[in-house]
Amino acid sequence: MGWNPLVVNVIVIDMSDQVVHCLIHFVREDKRTYVSIVYAKNYYIHRRDLWDNLCKHTIFVGNHPWVIMGFFNVSLNLEDSTAGGSNVTLAMREFQECVDHMRMSDVSQSGLHFTWNQRPNASEGILKKIDRIMANDIFINEFLNAHAVFLSYRIYDHSPAVLKIPTLYNSNIKSFKFLISLFIKRLRLELDQAQIWLDSDPFSNDAREEHCHLLHAYNSAVIDEERFLQQKSKIEWLHVGDNNTSFFHKVVKGKQHRNHILTVEDNMGNIVEGRDVPACFVSHFTNFLGNSSNSTPIDIPVLAAKIKSAIFDIGNNKSLGPDGYTTEFFMSTWNIIGDDIVRVVQDFFSKPITD
Known about the structure:
Blueprint: E1 8-15, E2 19-26, E3 31-39, H1 44-61, E4 66-71, H2 90-102, E5 105-106, E6 109-111, E7 116-118, E8 126-128, E9 131-135, H3 137-142, E10 147-150, E11 161-164, H4 176-200, H5 205-233, H6 245-259, E12 263-265, E13 271-273, H7 277-289, H8 304-312, H9 327-332, H10 334-350
Parallel strand pairs: 3-4, 6-10
Antiparallel strand pairs: 1-2, 2-3, 4-9, 5-9, 7-8, 10-11, 12-13
Helix pairs in contact: 1-2, 4-5, 5-6
C-alpha cells in the first residue's frame, strides 16, 4: 500500500488472516475514521472468526466513524444473488447478525450491484454481491458526501470497489435546521441559568416568572424542531418516548446520504462527478424536453373536486413544499383558502410552460 503522508496518515491497529484494522487521519481537514479491510475465507465456519473479530472491534471503535470494506464471501440479502432461492442460509444469517451488531449499513453507491461473477455466459453463470462498503451512522454524519463506486470487472471475477470521500467539500450556507438547533442551544443555556437562579432564590417572583417563560419557549422550540425533522424525514410520527429528535436527525442524515447524487454518466458515456453533476442534469433534460416554445396547455379539465381530493389524501404531517406548511394546515383552512388553491392549480394546467 502507498499514500501521500501530506494528505493522509494511515496507522495499522491490528490484523488477522481475514481483516486489517486501520485508523486514517485526513491531515488537512484534521478528520479521522477507522477503516477495516476484509478478505473473508471461503468456508462459513472459518468466517465465524471474522465476525467475532469485527464485533469485538466495535468496542474499540466506540463512538467514532468506522468503515468496513472488502470481500465478505457471502451475500447479505436474498436480492444479492441471481441464483434464486427464498431462504436465508445459515452463512447469510450469521453475516446479518454481525452487521446488525455493528450497526452498519451500505454506503451510498453507484456502478455495479453484483460484484462477483461465475462465468456469466448465455443462460449459465451466477452473479452475486459479496463485496461491500459499509459504515456506521457516525461516519455517515461526519462524511456525508462519501460514496462507493463498484467498477466493471472486465476480465476478472470481482468488481473493484472504490470509496470516495470528498472531504474538502464545504458549504457556507447554514440550513434552517442549523438555525433551529442554534436557537434551542441558546434557550437551553438561558433555561439552565434561570433554574440556577430559582434554586438559589426559590421565593423570588421574578425568578419564577423568568423560569416559566423560558421553559415554555424551550418546549415550543423543541416541538418545532421535531416537527421540522419529521417533515424532512418523511416518516409517520413515532409515539415513543418524550423526544424523538435524535431519531429524526439520524433518519434525515441517512436519507440525505442515500439520496445524494455524486456521480452520473452523461449522454456520451463520460463519468461526471462533484459540482459538475447539476450542470449535467440541466443539459440532459434540456436536450430531452426541449425549450418551451412548442409546449401546449393540457386540454383535460382539472376539476375542483379532484384537486381537493388529491390534497386531502395526503397524510396530515406531510409537507407540500419548501414553505413547510403541512397538509393539515390546508385541510383545516380549506373553507378560507380552498377556492384560491383550486384557481392556482387550474391556472397552472391551463397554460403552456414558459421560461
